[in-house]
Amino acid sequence: MYTYAIVPASVEPAAGRSARREPGLKWSRFGDQVIYWTTGASGSAAVRRVNTLGAVTQSSHGLPFLVVQAGNIFRDEFPDIPVILDKGRYLAVELSDAAVARLSAGNPAEFGFAPLPHNTAVVKEVLRAEHPLRTIDPAMTMLAAQVSSKRLQESLVSLTGFGTRHSLSGGFQHAVDWAADSFQSLGYSVTCSRITVGTGASFSVIADKPGTSADPGLVLVTAHLDSINHLDGPLAPAPGADDDGSGCAGVLEIARILSTRVDDHDLRLILFGGEEEGLFGSQQYVAALSGHDRDRLTAAINMDMVGTLNSAERGVLLEGAPVSQRLIDQLAASAQDYTSLHVDVSLHPFASDHVPFIIAGLPAVLTIEGSDSANHTIHSSQDTLNTIDYTLACEIVTMNLVTAARLLGTHTSINDLVRWRQSTLSDDSD
After folding, report:
1. Which uninterrupted H or E stretch holds 248?
2. Using CA atoms, how far apart are residues 135 and 220, in angstroms rounded to an integer?
3. Which helix (H) or strand (E) holds 317?
4. CA neighbor of 148 nearest in space, from 311, 390, 384, 341
5. Band of the pLDDT at 131, cuts 50, 70, 90?
6. How far apart are CA 299 and CA 409, in angstroms?
7. C-alpha span between 82 and 92 (Å, rounded)
8. Do both 58 and 154 map to the same domain?
9. DSSP character for 197?
10. Domain CATH code at residue 91
11. Per-residue pLDDT tens digits for 74-105
């Protein structure tokens, strides 16, 4: 029998570290809470020690597992499975042998599960107090100020107007043409790359802007262009405003702002098809990536659902893997310096277009709205424009824009800075 104790992370700095030394005790941190667990009567002393920290204790014959999910789909599909702790995209659950067999047989694409990692942080909060403020770069401040909620809204109105962007639908093909035209109007070189989605054919839209370096690196900013309605079927309306119209609008906004900049390195913007059916676009892109591009790829920043406010605090989750740690740190620094976002970090990637890059050993990070499991409108006809919080979307886009610009070596002239300062003074006087 397993015994669990859940402790607020606020006790961790002192008493928590002492409790972790108890024989037979394991722990796993989920942001502001820590799960301790042990097995059998031999662990009773350890659990008593944890209980002195003010823990809530429960026992079960199930095994502790981690579930990584999209929205709250796991809890909706399996209401009978006990949940130890709910941290939005991540659940700690109790699974019997029969439940493990049941989930393995179904193996739905909506969530993944594995034994609960022990003695590690599944989700870590990045607290501003832990990081000293850096000197703010005026050039990056100028870039950040150009992120426009009006432009994001205009893109989202167009994207949701296609009715559905199911990867094999006529609406998706219209979205592909619209996106290609949007990139081309900004001066990008555009390719509509054919992909297979199951037995059908679809496309990913790829836009390139070369850098000026003799030996340029490569920075990717991505989202998925398709949408889906799981409730009513592939022909039903799937406006996909948040999932993932918001990410596509963010990519286009970054494309607009960086289009006239002089960069050292190459920028590639990708709107993948086939994500909702199983990451077909990103998997096939990574599989076809040349050795040269693999060697020079420094970052893949993926935006998937960046527009719905699910809690009182505006937040973002940065999800990657150890290969992504440097990029995660850069994104977290940009969030601290240029936004008010609360940042959570996890190294347990699942079910978005960053995953094929990580499997290939390439640095990729999913940037997704905080507490996304509270968003119940995705994959339905209810994922509409009225779900979007444009302030949140602008903040996440700003974080990604600044990070991409730094990696690209984006250059800004003194004249640009003077014009930007004059415009801000003019705005202040209005």
Report:
1. helix 247-258
2. 26
3. strand 315-319
4. 390
5. low
6. 13
7. 9
8. no
9. E
10. 3.30.70
11. 888 888 898 888 888 899 999 988 888 888 87
